[in-house]
From TrEMBL:
Protein name, entry field: NAD(P)H pyrophosphatase NUDT13, mitochondrial
CDD domains in UniProt: NUDIX_NADH_pyrophosphatase_Nudt13
Domain of life, source organism: Eukaryota
Cofactor requirements of the protein: Mn(2+); Mg(2+)
Stretches assigned to the Nudix hydrolase domain: 196-323
GO CC terms in record: mitochondrion
Length: 352
């Protein structure tokens, strides 16, 4: 959103001002809902709910696309009533955003058991039948959702998972209680506040000037290669993580670094993916693979990568039994990083 505004600002200031004021209004409204439990509860009355079951979102298939249906508070209360549950369960929901008209959006998991609720898990097949949808694994559905829903459901899943795994204080062992919006949890005995966390991860596309380095882990789908990724160690800067991860995984030393973009990634837990381009020292391109981390890594030419980016159906096995070389789907920041490298030369700004 900020990048969007930044671009628009330089082109059309009046239009941009209107966009910004809508954005600011929305942001202030969400801030209020996070701070004020009563305001948040009130917002549920006119809000919309996205439903999950054991972290799988409820989706409806429409052709090749998945749609994420919204439910009103009234529909949700009716559903819970039908399955013999009281509406107290709705307090387990978390705030995940709002529309420009300030309709608040919430996510609620009907499968996870909450320590603060007497309600048991709802049976998945019965709920699916009632709501004419299916609870679908997010990782599988992500690429058949539009960008808005993919991003919203990723946030929702990450937040629901965090609440599910932080129900007790790590100091006192006593239960923690979420605020209405789900933006924090507080220990009932010592008032320690816990906030949802993301682990920073760098993802780096290494180039030698003409080729780029792509790698695969053994659990990747067959034929898929991606940029190098790795979690930041405590105490490290972004530049230090890039340098260490590239050295650890492929035995190369990177020279210059250029920040590209970032993305929240909900798998396996919540990560903040920080995407960068980097170059290796001239003439030092021999890959020394760390087999404990990677299954394979190789240098790829510009034309090979450009073709792979356009590949629509990567799972098609070739006649010789092999799988074609393909790249992560559009929604993944790895795809955007590789596309950026294919489309325009990168100006390297930061020494590592
Ligand atoms: N959105 C995108 O485009 C992409 C996203 N990714 C994501 O980036 C993440 C990191 O990439 P990956 O190459 O696996 O990372 P690493 O190279 O850092 O290797 C992963 C290993 O690091 C250890 N580790 C250290 N800190 C953490 C932590 N905070 N959370 C989990 N594991 C940790 C674990 O080892 P052990 O289990 O031995 O303790 C784990 O198996 C992945 O989760 C992946 O989903 C990756 C590529 C593309
Ligand atoms: Mg890695």
């Amino acid at each position: 959103m900020s990048l969007y505004c930044g671009i628009a600002c330089r082109r059309k200031s009046f239009w941009c001002y209107r966009q910004l004021s809508t954005y600011v209004t929305k942001t202030r409204y969400l801030f209020e809902l996070k701070e004020d439990d009563d305001a948040c509860k009130k917002a549920q009355q006119t809000g919309a709910f996205y439903l999950f079951h054991n972290l799988a979102p409820l989706l409806q298939k429409s052709g090749h696309q998945y749609l994420a249906p919204q439910h009103s508070l009234f529909e949700l209360e009716r559903l819970l009533g039908k399955f013999g549950q009281d509406s107290q369960r709705i307090e387990d929901s978390v705030l995940i955003g709002c529309s420009e008209q300030q309709e608040a959006w919430f996510a609620l998991d009907l499968g996870l058991n909450s320590s603060s609720s007497i309600n048991a898990s709802l049976q998945k097949p019965e709920v699916e039948k009632e709501l004419t949808g299916s609870f679908t694994e997010l990782r599988k559905a992500l690429y058949q959702l539009n960008v808005k829903d993919a991003s919203l459901l990723s946030t929702a899943q990450a937040l629901l998972r965090w609440h599910d795994t932080h129900q007790f204080c790590s100091r006192s062992g006593q239960p923690t209680k979420k605020n209405m919006a789900g933006s924090k949890r507080v220990c009932s005995s010592n008032q320690i506040i816990y906030y949802p966390q993301m682990a920073p991860v760098v993802i780096t596309l290494v180039s030698d000037g003409t080729r780029c380095l792509l790698a695969r882990q053994s659990f990747f789908p067959k034929g898929m290669y991606s940029a190098l990724a790795g979690f930041c160690d405590i105490g490290e800067s972004l530049e230090e993580t890039v340098r260490r991860e590239v050295a650890e995984e492929v035995g190369l030393e990177v020279e210059r670094l250029h920040y590209s973009a970032s993305q929240h990634w909900p798998f396996p837990n919540s990560s903040l993916m920080i995407a960068c381009h980097a170059t290796v020292k001239p003439g030092q391109t021999e890959i020394r693979l760390n087999l404990r981390e990677l299954e394979a890594a190789a240098w790829f030419r510009h034309d090979e990568v450009a073709i792979a980016l356009r590949r629509n159906n990567p799972y098609t096995q070739q006649q010789n039994g092999a799988f074609p070389f393909w790249l992560p789907p559009k929604f993944a920041i790895a795809h955007q990083l590789i596309k950026e490298w294919v489309e325009k030369p990168i100006r390297f700004t930061l020494p590592v």
